[in-house]
Design a protein that fits this description.
With about 600 residues, the protein is of the alpha+beta class. The protein is built from 17 helices and 20 strands. Strands 13, 14, 15, 16, 17, 18, 19 and 20 form an eight-stranded mixed β-sheet that branches. The longest helix has 29 residues. It is globular. It starts with a helix and ends in an 11-residue tail after the last helix. The relative contact order is 0.09.
Length: about 600
């Protein structure tokens, strides 16, 4: 029992957020506020009664169990830990302060940049000295290529640079550098898009992936790496111990870049905390040019393609999952199937009628997983869909019952033309039938000043949801003076991000005088850390321009530091600005003209 109490002592806010997520932690705090404790000690651990469920706390604390239907760390488990920490009188044993002190001392250890991701690897991997040398050499070659890109800028690169990236990706594959291979293939694929003049190319996305590739190669160039750092070529799926009751809710075709195929989405009817799951039938296209599509997907011993089962609710046994992503293993079987009804309580309870609520939940989950960012929304009305010929972007604005906007914006590509045209037709229907209720299944994200949506399905048969008015939490409200300051900082970060993209696009040879401006401007705004970063990058880049023997790696790493700062700052500011700004779509609609179906547009 003392072991459990020591584990509870270490289960602070940071631990609980990492164990679940920020949204579940905040919900548990709210649920347990003022709650009277009801728990007992037994042979299995500490039993806590909370919100009608029974939670058994064990050591290690991550193995605690709950009687609810969730198979993940739910709000009941987190709430039970919070109650136990607050009320166990003998929690403060003589050992606990020393344990906490050791934990804090471990967290305060400073690691070199290339070692930050490895501080939990207590035991070295099984790499030999020769393997490490080869991996270091390959990473150094990749950094040299990335340095050439930054030196010259992508506007001056020969077309063969994408082939060089592919060659290095193959070298990474041979050395089992899975993360490195994916990063280099991504760079090569985007450079191909740029050289081909495809509208799908986005300089912001390229800059982000370019910086991510630098971070990976910087880490792999260290002499103390181990096998865990290399990553895995295949996802590891864990067996799900209980049958899964799944209802298909949508599917989409994804193409472009290195992979293409279908993604199928399901609602897990037994897990209200993590309701969405998916199955991907996506294949790489970089190993051969022969397309092998239209063969259909026959997972789980099905005798018919999965596309023909998308109107059936079924039960899976022996399922395997990785973060909600299902395996198509033939060991998994469909135990039973019946006709599905999407107009059900399980769907309606997930629907947002106030888009601010959806935006806050997205921000608090803080997840890169597509499944964690899936939303069901019922808009009050839809604005005229439009198409911007300059940026080749389809746009549609949805408005909730309070006038808050969510934005559907999709970059046109040849591969998604049919999808975009379908969205345009649906948007026209939504405008022509404003009294009809439409429900949107989409992947959401918080951008600089808006809630952005990538739609998967739109339903017109789900009954309207009537919910109480949502009250925006106080921490997301902003006074006029504060909002003006936040907006100014966001504009500064936006300008700095564009300057960073310009540096990657045009190269160091063109000069980076703009960062001197940001150094002074950031200092005046009180952002001394960002000011030092901009100044340091300017000095390194200028020195590199005048010294052919200078090490490009230091410049690359400083570029990454600036990029990380900008992305982090924009993320923190975006939610406040999104929730407090006055919507103004005039600029958006002034750029738009005509419909996607107009062939003269392309």
């Amino acid at each position: 029992m003392d072991e459990i109490k020591r584990a509870l002592a270490l289960a602070d806010e940071s631990f609980l957020v990492n164990m679940s997520n920020k949204g579940i932690y905040k919900r548990a705090c709210k649920d347990t506020e003022g709650m009277l404790p009801l728990f007992s000690e037994n042979a299995e651990g500490i039993s806590v009664e909370i919100l009608g469920e029974t939670v058994t706390l064990t050591a290690p604390i991550e193995n605690s169990r709950c009687s609810c239907v969730s198979r993940t760390v739910c709000r009941h488990i987190v709430g039970a830990i919070l109650i136990a920490r607050r009320t166990l009188k003998d929690l403060e044993t003589d050992e606990v302060p020393q344990i906490i002190k050791e934990k804090e001392r471990a967290e305060n250890v400073k690691f070199p940049k290339s070692q930050e991701n490895k501080k939990n690897d207590a035991v070295p991997g099984n790499l030999t000295a020769e393997e490490i040398n080869k991996i270091n050499g390959c990473a150094a070659d990749c950094l040299t290529l990335l340095g050439d890109i930054l030196r010259n800028g992508i506007v001056r690169l020969p077309e063969a640079i994408s082939d060089n990236s592919e060659v290095l990706a193959v070298s990474c594959h041979a050395l089992k550098m899975a993360e490195g291979e994916r990063a280099m293939r991504s760079i090569g694929s985007l450079l191909n898009d740029y050289n081909a003049g495809r509208a799908a190319f986005d300089m912001s996305d390229f800059t982000h992936r370019f910086c991510n590739c630098i971070k990976i190669m910087d880490m792999l160039s260290d002499c103390s790496i181990n096998s865990k750092i290399l990553g895995s070529f295949r996802q590891e799926y864990k067996a799900v111990k209980v049958p899964l009751k799944l209802m298909p809710v949508g599917q989409r075709y994804t193409s472009g870049g290195d992979y293409e195929g279908e993604i199928y989405y399901f609602l897990n009817l037994d897990d209200p905390d993590k309701p969405f799951m998916s199955l991907s039938d996506i294949s790489p296209i970089f190993y051969d040019n022969v397309k092998k599509r239209n063969r259909g997907t026959f997972p789980w011993g099905m005798s018919v393609p999965l596309s023909r089962m998308m109107k059936k609710m079924f039960v899976l046994v022996n399922a395997k999952s990785n973060g909600g992503k299902l395996s198509s293993s033939q060991e998994t079987k469909v135990a039973m199937s019946v006709d599905a009804n999407l107009n059900c309580d399980e769907m309606r309870r997930l629907i947002y009628t106030d888009f601010r609520n959806a935006a806050v939940d997205l921000y608090e989950k803080d997840s890169a997983s597509e499944l964690d960012r899936m939303l069901l929304l019922q808009p009050k009305k839809c604005k005229q869909p439009c198409f911007d010929k300059v940026s080749q972007t389809f746009s549609m604005v949805l408005e909730d019952k309070n006038g808050f906007h969510a934005y559907v914006q999709i970059k046109y590509r040849r591969e998604n033309r049919e999808f975009v045209e379908q969205l345009e037709r649906i948007g026209e229907k939504m405008m022509q039938n404003p009294e009809k209720t439409y429900t949107l299944l989409a992947v959401g994200s918080i951008e600089t000043d808006k809630l952005a949506l990538y739609p998967i399905e739109i339903y017109d048969f789900i009954e309207p949801v009537f919910s109480d008015d949502y009250e925006l939490p106080q921490e997301y409200c902003s006074e006029t003076d504060e909002f003006s300051y936040y907006t100014a900082i966001a504009e500064l970060m936006e300008e700095a991000g564009e300057e960073l993209e310009l540096a990657v696009q045009c190269g160091l040879q063109t000069g980076i005088s703009g960062f001197r401006k940001f150094e002074n401007k950031a200092f005046n705004y009180g952002l001394k850390g960002f000011s030092r970063l901009c100044g340091g990058f300017s000095e390194l880049a200028e020195a590199y321009r005048h010294d052919a023997n200078a090490d490009i790696k230091e410049v690359l790493c400083k570029l990454v530091e600036i990029s990380d700062y900008i992305r982090s700052a924009k993320k923190e500011l975006s939610i406040i600005i999104t929730l407090n700004k006055e919507d103004n779509d005039n600029d958006l609609w002034s750029k738009c003209s005509g419909s996607v179906g107009d062939n003269n547009r392309f």
